[in-house]
Write a structure and sequence with these properties.
3 domains, alpha+beta, 6 helices, Rossmann fold, 19 strands, elongated, Immunoglobulin-like, 33% strand, five-stranded antiparallel β-sheet
């Protein structure tokens, strides 16, 4: 797999230790030239030879190094993001030492600030802050090792990865030999999840369409549902003995099953960023981002409590998702929130599909609650309430 990639570009960079070392060589060389003696000549020759040997050893060692990036499929704001690199030493005899892997950009070599694809360049630029670069101490001949770099995502959205560098300062730390590999990759950064009050969903779903209820179909272990003819394989505990005594025929008691609460989260983004109503020098774009974080936190809480949940987005041409639960359903909704382009034109639809689903509707607004976007039974929250809805904060809400 390594051999399928093109050879990297090679670079040599001086480090501060190398610059100081060169200045020392020049000073000793001037002294040896002005007052030649054996000691100064030998010292000058030794320093110059060490510089040459350092460049030769590190350069020859890096000739056989190849690497690829193994990108994660997704990340999340506020959580560490691990990016793995597979490094291979193709040499038969020469080992490699002190290899460091860094993502490379022209803007800054210390951090990441990457844009999405050209066709979605208007998407808000996410950034990844370097928490720990990948580093490999030793890789022997014909060996392959993995190094992991840790990043902290700062913004949600699509991050496009480009070139990365494998470098070393071995053996003396006087210069850095660099191999630059070109490999395009993408990572979708999901919005941050805030720990909301556990009793929040119980409060909004109690007594409404989305609360606990019994299913209209049999198959559970709760209340009595009906009696049917006995089938081979039915448990002996479910046999209707009184029916057997009266008719002489075996019958089975069926029980109803409870349905978990249902929740549909609606993010109201119909108003463009520039037209939002802000106060006290608020950042309108930040209000929209906080609304997305609040919606993601509602979904995460519903998933943790075993609810069936769904997502609708008003203001964008995004198809509403049906009510389900489970890990893959949650990741699908989080990806939909992460991919929102807040610079795209807005639509006027409310994001609901034509259906008769029985679910509690929670509407999240960036600035102020617009009650007409949902039914009169919906619950409305704004991005400004995010801090008050956190675990441990006093509970407040806006009710339609």
């Amino acid at each position: 797999m390594i051999g399928a990639f093109t050879k990297p570009k090679r670079r040599t960079r001086l480090v501060w230790a190398g610059v100081i070392y060169i200045l020392v060589i020049l000073a000793v060389g001037l002294a040896a030239g002005s007052r030649p003696n054996n000691l100064l000549v030998w010292v000058f020759s030794f320093l110059l030879a060490a510089m040459v040997v350092s460049g030769f050893v590190s350069g020859f060692m890096m000739m056989s190094i190849r690497a690829i990036r193994i990108e994660p499929r997704r990340g999340r704001v506020g959580e560490p993001l691990l990016v793995r690199y597979e490094i291979a030493n193709m040499s038969r005899f020469i080992p490699a030492y002190d290899l460091r892997v860094d993502e490379w950009t022209k803007a800054s070599r210390r951090g990441w600030s990457m844009r999405g694809r050209a066709r979605t360049s208007a998407v808000q630029t996410p950034s990844l802050e370097v928490a720990g670069p990948a580093w490999v101490l030793h890789i022997g001949p014909r060996e392959r090792l993995h190094g992991e770099a840790v990043f902290r995502p700062k913004r949600r959205g699509l991050v496009r990865l480009g070139e990365f560098e494998v470098s070393t300062k071995f053996p003396f730390g006087l210069m850095r030999k660099v191999l630059r590999f070109h490999q395009v990759g993408e990572v979708l950064i999901h919005p941050e999840i805030v720990a909301l009050r556990t009793e929040l969903l119980a409060k909004v779903t109690s007594g409404g369409f989305g609360g606990h209820r019994l299913s209209s179909e049999a198959g559970g272990f709760d209340d009595f549902f009906g009696v049917r003819e006995y089938r081979p394989g039915d448990s002996i505990r479910s046999i209707a003995w009184k029916r057997l005594a009266g008719t002489g025929k075996l019958a089975t008691i069926e029980r109803s099953r409870s349905v978990p609460p249902r929740l549909r989260v609606l993010v109201d983004l119909r108003v463009a960023t520039a037209n939002l109503r802000t106060v006290d020098a608020e950042d309108a774009r930040e209000l929209e981002e906080r609304a997305i974080v609040l919606a993601a936190s509602f979904i995460a809480l519903a998933d943790r409590l075993g609810y069936e949940y769904a997502l609708s987005i008003a203001g964008f041409d995004v198809a509403p998702v049906s009510l389900r639960k489970g890990h893959f359903h949650r990741e699908k909704l989080m990806s939909a929130l992460a991919a929102l382009d807040l610079d795209a034109p807005r639509t006027k639809g409310n994001g609901f599909a034509a259906s008769d689903e029985r679910a509690t509707v929670v509407v999240v607004h960036p600035d102020r609650a617009e009650l007409a976007v949902a039914s009169v039974d919906a619950w409305h929250f704004t991005a400004r309430q995010l801090d008050s809805l956190r675990e441990g904060a006093p509970l407040t809400e806006v009710r339609a």
